[in-house]
User: Fold DNA replication licensing factor MCM4 from Pseudo-nitzschia australis.
Amino acid sequence: PQIQVRPFNLKEVANLRCLDPIAMDTLVALKGMIVRCSPIIPDLKVAHFSCCVCGHDHQVSIDRGRVEEPKQCPSCNTKDSYTLLHNRCVFADKQLVRLQETPDQVPAGQTPSSVVTFCFDDLVDASQPGDKVEVTGILKAQPVRINPKVTKLKSIYKTYVDVIHFRTITGMEGKQGTTTGNGSNNNTDGNSDGNTNSNKSKRGVMKLNKERAKELIALSKRPDIYEILTQSLAPSIWELDNVKKGVLCMMFGGNHKRVKNKNKTKKRKKQDQRRANNSMDSEDDDDDDNDNDDDKWSDDEEDNDDDDDDDDDDEDTKLNKRGDINILLCGDPGTSKSQLLSYVHKLSSRGIYTSGKGSSAVGLTASVVRDPETRDLVLESGALVLSDRGICCIDEFDKMTDATRSILHEAMEQQTVSIAKAGIISSLNARTSILASANPVESRYNPNLSVVENIKLPPTLLSRFDLIYLILDAPNADSDRKLAQHLVGLYYEKPNIVKPPMGTELLRDYIDYARENIHPRLSDEASEELLNSYLDLRNPPGGNVGNNGTRTISATPRQLESLIRTSEALAKMRYSSVVSRADAKEAVRLLKVATQAAATDPRTGRIDMDMINTGRTEVEREMGESLYLGLKEFLIERRGNRLAVRDVTRQLSEISNTQVAQDEVVGALRRLEADGMVQFNERNQSIFVRTGIAM
Assistant:
């Protein structure tokens, strides 16, 4: 057996941008984030040559990628008679991994530096894009050829690192830059090997030791653990307890489910009936008991095969249900939205922080680059893909372009990112929670307008958020004084900072352990509570009835799924394997104080989920329909005439004794144009009423 020596835990960790020629052929330790992993490349280790004249075999070991072909056969003394037999050569697995500085390591005003690393054998696929790792390896350099067919070389060399050891780093250790001493490696237990797959969970997080796990389990049994977690999250932010509880639910997350599709197609049913008939015919053809016994065994085997086939069919028809919770924070400036996003990003073991204005669709999904080794076009992961099984924090969400926001529809619901570029057609996993913050279009939130009108986000995207929090800066003498005292206390000579019940490292470990090991299921009491609460939201006791007798929608099936995910996250906070009735009640309360506050119609005070799902309330739809019918009746009397939109708006306002907005008139005219009643000239803002129209 081969014994491989893998040194790690070096005293000094170098910065990527500080690598210089002095460090060539020396052992170095680097910290960074993996941004790309190439497919497995076969690397030639031992070349096997055979003489074409006498068949003499000769093996040559590869030295730094150079193959020394034998010049003369020692058996028959023939020159240049050797040919390479690739099927008898010895190859090793090789993988290119690009390591890049994390955002916290980049100096101000500079772009992130990166370095190419090569992994071999059991280190291949030891890490994945998005992991923050400490790499121990040998820094090497190789010359750059101007032309592969010419032996002429450039005087400039390109550097790379041959990896000896990988170690996944989490927490604040992954946020730091260059470190010296052994302080950065205190989290390791000294028994890690080169392949980190054995010590890593599915989320790329290092598994905790038994002592730490016992400490976390003992902490979870405290009756006030929910309040302890709330007080420990972003303690420098004053109040906002309901927002913090919702963010905690997002960090713990629900369960990812694969629901079987029990509806079989007619073709499948016919196949099952045909198999049943065949088995009955085979039983009728048996004469003696021995044959019957044999057929019983064969029938049992056939039934097992059918079960396997059914399992395969069920596997193909399973529907993925996301367990990640998406949250949108919107409201007035200066309400700690960005500060909360930054804290969540630093607390999460895996994730990316980005800003809406500086993000593009390619930067969020994946870009097509040319591989420096093979010169092939490959995909390089973007923010959503790098945040897989983590949290993607997007600040200034309202500043994104429509083209950039459009790619989030698939990522937030199906949790995949589909790519079709440069002949590369792929679907990448983006199983991430999205925490976004948005400011109103007029800087201050206007309570007389709906949330859709305030932040100008498309309803199809807004409805994909499980919780939408309105954080408003409402003047209040008592709360303003307490907030001012809290802020001033942070700047004392001896800051009056209250120590949170749980430190950052302990809170991070508590969340990671729950996400990996706790998978609660709904109890009968919780299911009944969620069902009754959902029906109460759909049909409130007072009734959400519009002016024309129609009932407004105060909850949709999306809200029910959000309630299930939130209740599962609340059970995870207690390290419970069962969702209790109290968890379901708290999930309903969080939904009411968050999303339903944003879904309240400012004109009527009623809850109308259509305001988020479609962008228009029931009152607006009624007004639009009345305007459409009134405008249609108004134009029938003026058939064959050309009218200005401004004049039509003025006359309608006089007839109805109410102020009619010109934008609403234009929307109704577009409907009439689609019906063939008018010709609308958008440039001149005029219409021509066709002749021959009727009611």
Q: What stands out?
A: The chain has four domains: 12-199, 237-256+322-477, 261-313, 618-689. Confidence is low (pLDDT under 50) at residues 176-198, 286-317, 546-551. DSSP finds 22 helices and 26 strands in the chain. The domain at 618-689 is CATH 1.10.10.10 (Arc Repressor Mutant, subunit A).
